[in-house]
Write a structure and sequence with these properties.
Creatine Amidinohydrolase, Chain A, domain 1; six-stranded mixed beta sheet; Creatine Amidinohydrolase; homodimer; alpha+beta
Chain lengths: 596, 596
């Protein structure tokens, strides 16, 4: 199938005199999830991981992806005629070098400028200089006969009761951060930045409650570009009250190119496409990059205000209640002899339990329920068609999250089913130990995530094991569950952790073919104390879901962390029990009992 | 006095039509210590910290230094007419901006290109573009009447028995790292890089056993440029055996400018002066920077070979024996009622005790013996003229190190004299806890120092305290006690910790006006294990000096670290006791006894 599509594509390339093509991956808004319309890489190759780019010449084709997807890509690309290029592995060529080696100077390379962030283009440019870059926006439209159209859905207003800040106040803070004396036009492509700024939420993207939209700001004005038909009366009222001008999604190009050229164009290079960049400067305007990692809006958005934080705390109670019911459901169900529990059914169950709350808006990412060896694949997702049943004598890992109108959750719990080995108990204790280490950290303001990462990873390292993903990602407020710019990982990231930032804390151990363990809470960075030395921060754990204490090896966890765990469980019971009845309450009482 | 010198300087500036002058700090080899000849900043301002640069205009003058020297600089600059510019503090202008604000375009700025590393110049350049930079090498020669001359001393050969690698082998490894196909000339200004490469040691610089020298390498040749008169018969034999050509120190400029221009010049921008850079390119040659942080040689030098590591282990025994005698001496002496112990006398005593070994070559840095409040100044050094006596009921901090022909040491111990407070005991325990945390770390290869720093700092942070200096610096092999390129500090440093690297481990707490605590061992990075996950490293503690266990709060240190401490003390006794007699041996037995 893939081979046939590749032939179709090459035929179209020859017709247009194109020697190499970079197959678009992602959409013009550069979020984590995309609509079906933009899944050209999946259509062509069968690879459906969330990160991958393909380059095609008339003879060769290859897909670039990162370590999260090596196993999956290898399987899905088999027989496709598309090779696998392992990113960040020494010796792997970049796309540009790969193309350069295969083409003669002066040949034409097809790109879709609309789908290429300016920052990527800057990186590509060097090796692609000898070639002519040609726009191939419509090429896939030709070869992909059944390509889905871009869909657009209703946009809702998120009340100040949930956001805690008006649009005009956010606008004023952005303008202050831009700090530009003269006239400027600040260009925004990122849907979650737009949703945050305008206090709106959409449904155009799976899991990310955002509308497909553009926006442009000046010192005194805001213009929002949305799909026609999404402008309800409520939205219209909200936007006009906040003095936001509304224009059509397709009018963005004309607006930014025809805006007076003396106004400087400003945007984050990671979040603006080459196409929008070129269009906005077509009249001869000047461009200034927004140099803050992730851009100014992402940096403001990452620091949650008191209202948002209260909302998160409320969401955690609602989510914790669903988790308790889910965990007890799993336990009870596994007692039934002739009624095996499928991973897919379990995943559906927790979603249903969350939906008992009126504030629940949907899942925050594709749920992971993985038993035994499945849990060793960090990005395993059961599907209705392909999944396993929960067996015995191994770990069951559940990593799911909910979108609530007041906040977003993301929790992983690993529970022992039946008897587990001493090695499994040790590994479980080390992962939990790492998670608690990070949760207990205290540090001066100015500290970056890469400095704290070892706290979570250290216990895992001490056993000669490791996990290849980050320890912590930022989390949006009823927005993207993976939100920048802060992170807690081994790689240096200059963004410092600030009070108000919410990050995950999720160390893990994966034993391929055997088992996987991950413990994940969300933690809030808060000011702890201020003295002559510094202002110090600490974390407040937000997530309220009991841990399985049965596999914990007491001596290995140590007194300090046992105390933390007991205190945490006391709090979980205190906060959740008012919302639980009879059996669920009794179950939680037992599961949150002190260990000594 | 300083005001009068400033007037002399300004008179000379006016005579030459110079509106601003950057006062040279450092020497042309960019090491930590410099000869008296190069101490222009101290002559002019009275400030004698090891890092400081002055800019002078006809009206203003200011000194830039970092946080280590703020207190000292403030005191020493008082009444000098020279302001203090606190580096890395938000809002502090750089030298270039400061000058730019005070001058009109086209005015002349005096610099000494010989003393300006190319990397600094690149940074300066932007704001100084509107000005004419003029060479003022001889200006200080005119105003500083009693300026000392540059001294040069005998150069010794360091036998392969100590170095473990021949000059030609090192040359071959450097050439391989340079990886240049065509002809090149690799320029070396850094004296410790030269001493390492040529297996020589000198005495031109205090504490750093290096000669003032330059060197130039090609694929097949090595040329060493040294002061006339230092070439002994032994050195001549050694160098000719290794096919090293010897030329005069002053012949370096002619050599590098007259070397065929088709040969590319390569050097580390941090380690080559603007002057040498310009001279080497005067014939139209091409320049390629050595982009490895610290340069290729520093990176090779930092990884110690087995012979060097054995030498370090031997040096640690010799040093440990001196420390035991010193610590017992202090204890005994403090019992004498009418014979107070001066910090200066104590510092002299440990040097004398070290000198009992034939392999001892001198101190590796200016000794710090600091009682009570003095210890709260991280860079306090007692002098014969100005020092305190060791009193009662406070900590005595001793931070000293020795140069042995087989290795370099650097150790800090803090001991309780009389009664100390609960807060002091807690702080002492936290500092020791941090030091042990880092010493126990295990981590995959590829880990950087900034990732591990929190292990040492975390316990200090947990009490809402912090120290402003790094946790760990590299240490040379009978070379500079502060050696790059690796470090363990809060700031990101891309250099990864590799097996064979030796680093200090020295967390601290400083309570201004009250007390200071620092514990410091040297630790060696070693391979621990290799498995499907990664190759893991761990540290071997090299230093063999007992800690004062009396202030340790058991519950706070915790079982795991008490076990480490007891094991460490067993090893200290096992390794040192064969070299100790009677009372010293007995004392060590008691001081290294298990705590429970």
């Amino acid at each position: 199938m893939a081979v046939y599509k590749l032939e179709l594509l090459r035929k179209a390339m020859i017709e247009r005199g194109i020697s190499a093509l970079v197959v678009p991956s992602g959409d013009p808004h550069f979020g984590e999830y995309i609509q079906a319309h933009y899944k050209c890489v999946e259509w062509l190759s069968g690879f459906n991981g969330s990160a991958g780019t393909i380059a095609v010449t008339l003879k060769d084709a290859a897909l670039w992806t990162d370590s999260r997807f090596f196993v999956q890509a290898e399987a899905q690309l088999a027989g496709s005629g598309i090779g696998l290029m392992k990113m960040k592995i020494p010796g792997t060529e970049g796309i540009d070098t790969w193309i350069k080696k295969r083409l003669k100077d002066g040949e034409r390379v097809g790109v879709v400028k609309e789908l290429l962030p300016l920052s990527d283009f800057n990186m590509l440019q060097q090796d692609l200089l000898p070639f002519e870059l040609v726009e191939t926006d419509d090429l896939f439209q030709t070869v992909w006969k059944s390509r889905p159209v871009v869909e657009s859905y209703r946009i809702n207003v998120l009340d100040d009761v949930y956001t805690g800040e008006s649009v005009s106040s956010k606008h004023a803070r952005i303008v202050a951060e831009i700090g530009e004396e003269g006239d400027f036009l600040y260009l925004i492509s990122s849907c979650d930045d737009i949703a945050w700024l305008f206090n709106i939420r959409g449904a155009d993207i799976e899991y990310n409650p955002v509308p497909l939209a553009y926006a442009a700001l000046t010192k005194n004005s805001m213009t929002l570009f949305i799909k026609t038909g999404t402008l309800t009366e409520e939205l219209n009222l909200h936007l006009s009250k906040e003095n936001v001008r509304v224009m059509g999604y397709d009018e963005f190009d004309t607006f930014i190119s025809s805006y007076p050229t003396y106004a400087i164009r400003i945007a984050s290079k990671e979040k603006i496409s080459l196409s929008k960049y070129e269009i906005s400067l077509s009249g001869g305007a000047l461009f200034k990059p927004d140099t803050r990692r992730g851009g100014i809006i992402a940096n403001l958005k990452a620091v949650k205000n008191e209202t948002e934080i209260s909302g998160f705390r409320k969401a955690m109670i609602l989510d914790g209640v669903a988790w308790v019911k889910y965990l007890r459901f799993v336990e009870e169900r596994l007692k039934e002899k002739n009624n095996p529990l499928g991973e897919w059914e379990a995943a559906a169950k927790i979603a249903l339990l969350r939906a008992e709350s009126d504030l629940y808006m949907g899942e925050s990412f594709a749920p992971i329920v993985a038993f035994g060896p499945n849990a060793a694949l960090p990005h395993y997702e059961p599907s209705e068609a392909v999944h396993s049943f929960v067996g015995n004598d191994n770990f069951l890992l559940t990593d799911t999250g909910g979108q609530y109108i007041c906040g977003t959750t993301d929790t992983t719990r690993t529970i022992a089913i039946g008897d587990i080995t001493e090695e499994q108990k040790r590994d479980y204790t080390l992962v939990l130990s790492g998670m608690i280490n990070l949760a207990m950290a205290r540090f001066p303001s100015g500290t970056r995530g890469a400095q704290l990462d070892i706290l979570a990873r250290g216990p895992v390292f001490s056993a000669g094991k490791m996990y290849m993903h980050g320890t912590g990602h930022g989390v949006g407020h009823y927005l993207c569950v993976h939100e920048g710019p802060q992170s807690i990982r081994m790689e240096e990231n200059p963004v410092v952790l600030k009070p108000g930032m919410i990050t995950s804390d999720e160390p893990a151990i994966y034993e391929e073919g055997r088992y996987g363990i991950r413990c994940e809470n969300l933690i809030l960075c808060k000011e702890w104390c201020k003295n002559k030395f510094a202002t110090f921060c600490e974390f407040e754990t937000l997530t309220l879901v009991p841990f399985d204490t049965r596999p914990v090896i007491r001596e290995l966890l140590g007194k300090e962390k046992i105390d933390w765990l007991n205190e945490y469980h006391k709090r979980v019971f205190r906060e959740l029990s008012p919302y639980l009845k009879n059996d669920d309450r009794e179950w939680l009482k037992i599961r949150t009992a002190d260990i000594d």
